[in-house]
Amino acid sequence: MTLAIVLAAGTPGAGLTTATGEPLADRLADQLRRAGADEVRFAASLDELAALADTARGPLLVTGTDLVAHTAVLRHLATSPVGPTVALVLSDPPVPGRAAVREERGQVVDAGALDALDGDATGVFGGALRVGVDDLPTLAAAARAAAAGMLPVASPLGPAGDVAPLPLVGGGGPLGSVAAGNPGSAVDRLVAGLAALGTLIFAQRVRLLVAHRVDDAAGLSAAEAAVTAVDEDRAELRLSVKEKDDFFSTYFVSTWSPYVVRVAARLRLTPTGVTVISVLFALAAAVLFGVGGRPALVSGAVLLYLGFVLDCVDGQLARYTRHFSAWGGWLDTMADRAKEYLVYAGLGFGVSHAGLGNGWALAIAAMTLQTVRHMTDTWYGVLHDEAARRPRSASGASGGIGDRLNAASTRVQADTGSLSYWLKRTVVFPIGERWALIALTVALFNPLVSLIAVLVWGTLAFAYTGALRTLRARWMWVPVLDTVDATLHRDDGPLARRLPTVRPMGPLTLSVIAALGPAVLLVAALLGDAPDGLRWAVPVALLVLLVGGLGAGAAHNGPLDWLVPAALRAAEYLFAIAVGVVGGVPGWLIFGYVFVLTVHHYDLTARLEKRQAAPPLHLATLGWEGRSVLLALVAIAGIASIGMATLGAYLLVVFVASVVLAWFVRPARVARASAASAVAGGGAPR
């Protein structure tokens, strides 16, 4: 249940009447209902709002009474998938009494009076925010502190949401600075208080639509005219396309995909349905790549392109219809990787089938490279978000190469549409460019050229991004693995947790060493004439691999420890591939086993991005070291193929069962329990 609160306290626009003679506050209440609020309440003070927050059981929508906007703006705020707590941010010039904000990577990292932000303001607060359930206690604390004329600050000793009130005086922080010049409206003091308490607030920018805060009748009239001048539905269709996308997606997909979105909406297709169709297109393309022959290869390339268009359409349809769900986001993430790796499998089979070489080896290499790249992308994103939330002095010293690289990157990203901007976005080899490269090379040449091109460009992109990110990370010096469950995201099993901890070397060094043993064994097996003769070396490589477990209990707070999960993924994949080569396992079976591992690891990172707990059956996956020990045992016993097939099938069953439990069984149980509780209490579910 979503409760909306119109906060009238201290709003300059309170009492204004619209062109139709309706009070602006009443129109806002009606818009909030149409935006999805189940109930709308008016609060005359911050204390009253705090009391409502104390009893709320769902997210809160809070607005002042001075906002003039399209209803779609409020609907986007209410349904935004970026995070639980979201603030409306405008590009209007700041005025006294209104909170300015500093935004980094889509997060409001500071809010308050303009002078309190030391010239770093990137926008102004739009007078409306959505607060997630977990942040409601913090909202109530910020409201009560602001109502009492106090600046709330996070308590270093108390639990989350505790505040240590400080008087509102100039220089006391964002909220104190607002009070020093002008108390501002209640909603401005509220968002400043939330920011002061360290709440993770995401920014909802207004693009193509209209939203303005007004102080008088003239401002109201001008804002209403601006709203009327924009076709809301047409703007929403254009907004379904990402504002900043990659080159291929921008110029070869998004120029016509909105028409597909409109048709899909009229046919009442869901984003999940479109995702499933895109998987079928990719699967058909993979089959055609495996069949070979020029007609099949060209047809597969066309299907691959259309599949990528649909891959963009599912997200655009979700944004257009505002049908977001955690399940849909998770499924989209997993489907993207499954489609790409199925295409690699088709290309690999096509190479081997045509007698052009060992296609499965190339497909395995491409999948491993891309997965390890994605692991570094995920954790670097977490690193950057954490750096944005911390005071700048904590992110590293000023100056140096890291500072210069960061400034250069910011300048390039701001120069939208320039040659340097597109080069930067293209050189990293995003998914649109990968699919375009595959489609073109396979249609013009053959699957072998396609896989080699993917490997070459992917390796160069990995080297480029890895070098720059390492330099910037050393400059920022922001640990991120100590802010999450490192054991979960390392994918440690029971054995790694029981190994002794070697702290002086650090978890990253140990993880890199762990990858070296399997890498040496794999190279020796590939270059040798009799790989089976290296069976004796499997236990040695396993012992080197287990060195990575010696860092499980150490603090992961080094500037480069965000690379640990990727290093452990590389170590496990290399060991599995080496065992397969030494044990004479067919290439398709090695590919299938590593594919199952990648699905498991993408599930972990998708849950990290969606801020979800561990999969229900995570302990049953045995951990990277447990799986590796089992593979070593079957290789020594001479049954590597049987063992790898059995373990892969087991992990796939565990994964499917975990998905069913997490997304269907457990939510159904919660819904039944909630309904039963409501019946026992004599009321409807809240």
From TrEMBL:
<dbReference type="InterPro" id="IPR000462">
    <property type="entry name" value="CDP-OH_P_trans"/>
</dbReference>
<feature type="transmembrane region" description="Helical">
    <location>
        <begin position="508"/>
        <end position="527"/>
    </location>
</feature>
<protein>
    <submittedName>
        <fullName>DUF5941 domain-containing protein</fullName>
    </submittedName>
</protein>
<keyword id="KW-0472">Membrane</keyword>
<keyword id="KW-0808">Transferase</keyword>
<dbReference type="InterPro" id="IPR045985">
    <property type="entry name" value="DUF5941"/>
</dbReference>
<keyword id="KW-0812">Transmembrane</keyword>
<feature type="transmembrane region" description="Helical">
    <location>
        <begin position="435"/>
        <end position="464"/>
    </location>
</feature>
<dbReference type="Pfam" id="PF01066">
    <property type="entry name" value="CDP-OH_P_transf"/>
</dbReference>
<feature type="transmembrane region" description="Helical">
    <location>
        <begin position="341"/>
        <end position="365"/>
    </location>
</feature>
<dbReference type="InterPro" id="IPR043130">
    <property type="entry name" value="CDP-OH_PTrfase_TM_dom"/>
</dbReference>
<comment type="similarity">
    <text>Belongs to the CDP-alcohol phosphatidyltransferase class-I family.</text>
</comment>
<dbReference type="InterPro" id="IPR048254">
    <property type="entry name" value="CDP_ALCOHOL_P_TRANSF_CS"/>
</dbReference>
<feature type="transmembrane region" description="Helical">
    <location>
        <begin position="303"/>
        <end position="321"/>
    </location>
</feature>
<feature type="transmembrane region" description="Helical">
    <location>
        <begin position="647"/>
        <end position="665"/>
    </location>
</feature>
<feature type="domain" description="DUF5941">
    <location>
        <begin position="491"/>
        <end position="680"/>
    </location>
</feature>
<feature type="transmembrane region" description="Helical">
    <location>
        <begin position="272"/>
        <end position="291"/>
    </location>
</feature>
<feature type="transmembrane region" description="Helical">
    <location>
        <begin position="534"/>
        <end position="553"/>
    </location>
</feature>
<dbReference type="Pfam" id="PF19365">
    <property type="entry name" value="DUF5941"/>
</dbReference>
<feature type="transmembrane region" description="Helical">
    <location>
        <begin position="573"/>
        <end position="596"/>
    </location>
</feature>
<feature type="transmembrane region" description="Helical">
    <location>
        <begin position="617"/>
        <end position="641"/>
    </location>
</feature>
<keyword id="KW-1133">Transmembrane helix</keyword>
